Here is the input.
Amino acid sequence: MAHPISAFQAAYISIEVLIALVSVPGNILVIWAVKMNQALRDATFCFIVSLAVADVAVGALVIPLAIIINIGPQTEFYSCLMVACPVLILTESSILALLAIAVDRYLRVKIPVRYKSVVTPRRAAVAIACCWIVSFLVGLTPMFGWNNLSKMRRTQEPNGSQEFIITCQFETVISMEYMVYFNFFVWVLPPLLLMLLIYLEVFNLIRKQLNKKVSSSSNDPQKYYGKELKIAKSLALVLFLFALSWLPLHVLNCITLFCPSCQTPHILTYIAIFLTHGNSAMNPIVYAFRIKKFRTAFLQIWNQYFCCKSAKNAPGSTTEAEQGN
Here is the structure.
């Protein structure tokens, strides 16, 4: 029988729902903007759409599953494992999308003349597909055997049934060795460090080009690299917010694994979880304030489908429009 929800759990659920209500519409707006605006159809924005899809799934799928895990229902081991794995898939998908964006920005400033012939829509689509395939393989690794089932069977008495019934919690089914050695040390930390190096090189290349073009008084290349600098800064901010949101939880996982006797306050764990889920709501805000093309597309969607819709449907509005024509 399920335990009644405590006041603390109710507060946790309320915050998670609030994050989901911001994340899902915001990222759907990002996808919508790219779909309707031709200026947002290059490879970078395709990778941004892939990132937005992962963020929509965090709000629509991962957060509801996290709420279920927080309540701790009694369920079969592999059913709980299936509930825990989506967040691993989507985290890896976000990291690989950010890496693809970083590589794309690097190519734009390194080979601006040959960029369009190298980064074709077909190649961008293949890269996105590869990112998602790798994400599923990494995120579903616990389903293939790297989990806590054998450890639990050694420590618990068999119940005489083929099914192994447990209280569903993330740490109960997911191995901390997997989370630290494989997930963090192989698939999170190295890509983040690689992206840091890539963006440092991007800024270095842009500044060199700007200095060179300023001295030769050529305005068009200066405008191109100036625009690239602004976009690179915005996307580097997205990367920084992702790292800021996810590293605390991974640090807590390292403490759990390497210092089993250390007691981590539950409030820190919840704050770290809120940061990871809240990151899915941050990107649309960054795009709106930092990237003019997105801001223009968002305003266009708002004016066309929301703000002026009631005015268009109001009695007499057609007549007024006709008279204006």
Remarks:
- The radius of gyration is 24 Å.
- Strands lie at 74-76, 165-167.
- The mean pLDDT is 89.
- The longest strand covers residues 74-76.
